[in-house]
Design brief:
2 copies of one chain form a homodimer. The relative contact order of chain A is 0.16. Chain A has helices spanning about 15-30, 40-45, 70-75, 80-90, 105-115, 150-165, 190-200, 225-250, 255-275, 300-315, 320-344, and strands at about 1-5, 30-35, 55-60, 95-100, 125-130, 135-140, 175, 205-210, 220-225, 285, 290-295. By secondary structure, chain A is an alpha/beta fold. In chain A, helix 7 links the parallel strand 7 (about 175) and strand 8. In chain A, strands 3-2-1-4-11-10-5-6-9-7-8 form an 11-stranded mixed beta sheet, sandwiched between helices. Chain A is globular, with a radius of gyration of 21 Å. At the A-B interface, helix 8 and helix 9 of A face helix 8 and helix 9 of B.
Chain lengths: ~350, ~350
């Protein structure tokens, strides 16, 4: 299996992608095709003693920056790591693409170059978010700021597929993020989405989930529009950072605090690991024809390694193929309902 | 000054409102008019040795339950604590109304009975939310699920007034909750709201605030629609509850944890106090003609006492009068801009 990896994307490039790729080759036996400035990559690998077994490079002369306008960058920067990588994916030069670069460019590029599954207009960004009981899949968390009710129903189907194929959860609970448990709650769009999700075949819809219950991990898939998902994802990160930061201050405040820290260091380490998004890899762009994974911009080697592992699982389990089957079933069901109501 | 208090609203009624009222009378020298089942209130006060100096009762034979449909309940339950209290407020029988009862009924009842300031269609629910640097005012946090851009601009004006008059912050920073710092970010509604807020007179607009930065307390007033505000408020509560709960488990896990807890008990107490919304009272319904405060449904005596203190501050500083002046200035500015663009 060949995983295409953007070596120039993210805050810690190219060192983190290089080290993550080397670790992934060793751990999962994959081959990695690294896209980027070949001379720089070879020099960096040599300087840091990173073994290049199983890694080949494809030289790219351009990179897409965070400040580039996504659609324009995809059209103009033909030799950028994202454009070259996505084109190689489409043409069979690799089985999946991983990048910690610009989310916007990756999203637009995936839509334009890799294309979407039948029935999906634009891919959704799905993120595995740490929670108390177990992590949950949040989608969309930023790619589609505004959504129609049918899109949320499709997110339920795609999220279910992902949790089954990649996270090995047999019958994931799908919930709709809303400002109340009753089905009458929320905006008109959410009320309609609730009714659609109730009728969606092949998913286990458990109803609305209130924001206060989301961090418990009661649902396996939390469905929402990209604006709300972005708020949930970023506020969860912000709250965890603030509270753990304030806790750190308490432990550092005096000798008693420092002694206390030593006593609970192991437990706190476990908590930190459980809350660490890097453990779960990146955010898959679900609805793309082939696996595309967005790694966090601040990815360290471990996060890149986990994103490659995640890409491998998508390929191993034919995620995109199974997702197309599930979407086809949804579409057939819709046509059946439509023709029944026409007949009446 | 007379504060009207719903004695039957909230999970801990009537004991918490009774005890909170007695504490407020003692601490702030206000008079309290308690609305509810007079016989039950007198019996409960006697059983718990709660002094009734400064408290008078107005007997109400009905209460509005959480399951009642708000608009219907306001029309039908004429002798409920909320309807009687809001009518007394309107008719000069008290200076402010405090209730821990149904948010929906209080919102609808305030609009219908107390009415709104000129230029405000429906009041917004504003909540003081704990954060790292200092608490911030979040509005709307649930009353108006969908908002127009002009409403968000008015929230900026009303939130500024509240922070100046009640929290004594001279020049509060107003920010728009959005999924990116750039003004081009967000839904079309948010882009338009950003432009309006930039031009709004009498406020210090600092631009968009990303959800991850909200818990830092960088802004004094965070403006958003009621759906987004509800997500921010409830998710903040949920995340704090989850993380502090997991921390508690670590401290209780073994002898080392218990010793560690004793060493940092004081610091953790300070953290808990800082994160405790009860410290800041309730959520004012801003835009109402007279002060109406929604206390949290789970309010304990301290939260009721603080909500009464907050109501007193609104009255002392003529919050509603100053808010009307500020809204009039906003309206005059809008008319000036409109006539200028007509003239062009």
């Amino acid at each position: 299996m060949k995983i295409l990896l953007d070596m120039m994307g993210g805050d810690n490039a190219p060192l983190a992608p290089l080290a993550g790729a080397a670790a992934a080759v060793k751990a999962y036996g994959v081959q990695v095709v690294g896209l980027g400035d070949e001379a720089l990559l070879k020099k960096t690998a040599a300087e840091h003693d990173i073994p290049l077994d199983g890694i080949e490079f494809v030289n790219c002369t351009e990179t897409i920056d965070m400040c580039d306008e996504p659609a324009l960058a995809i059209r103009r920067k033909k030799d950028s790591t994202i454009v070259v990588g996505l084109n190689m994916l489409k043409d069979g030069g690799g089985d999946a693409f991983v990048s910690a670069g610009s989310t916007g460019a990756l999203h637009v590029g995936t839509s334009l170059l890799v294309r979407t599954l039948a029935g999906v207009k634009r891919p959704a960004l799905a993120t595995v978010v740490p929670a108390k009981k177990h992590p949950y899949l949040l989608m969309d968390c930023g790619a589609n700021v505004e959504c129609r009710p049918e899109m949320l129903a499709a997110f339920g189907v795609m999220g279910t597929c992902y949790m089954q194929q990649v996270m090995h959860i047999e019958s994931p609970a799908v919930a709709l993020a809303n400002n109340g448990a009753e089905e009458s709650k929320g905006t008109p769009m959410l009320k309609e989405a609730h009714q659609l999700l109730k009728k969606t075949p092949g998913i286990r819809f458990t109803g609305n989930i209130e924001p206060r219950d989301v961090p418990n991990g009661d649902a396996d898939v939390v469905v929402c529009d990209g604006f709300t998902g972005n708020v949930i994802l970023k506020l969860s990160e912000g709250m965890a950072k603030m509270l753990l930061g304030m806790l750190k201050e308490i432990f550092l405040a005096n000798l008693g605090g420092k002694m206390a820290y030593l006593l609970v260091k192991k437990g706190l380490g476990g908590l930190k690991k459980q809350m660490d998004a890097d453990e779960y890899g990146g955010a898959p762009l679900l609805g793309a024809k082939q696996p595309v994974i967005k790694a966090h911009g601040s990815s360290k080697p471990k996060a890149i390694q986990n994103a490659i592992r995640q890409a491998k699982l998508c390929v191993d389990n034919d995620l995109c193929g199974k997702m197309q089957q599930a979407l086809d079933t949804l579409e057939a069901e819709r046509e059946k309902t439509a023709s029944q109501s026409d007949a009446q």
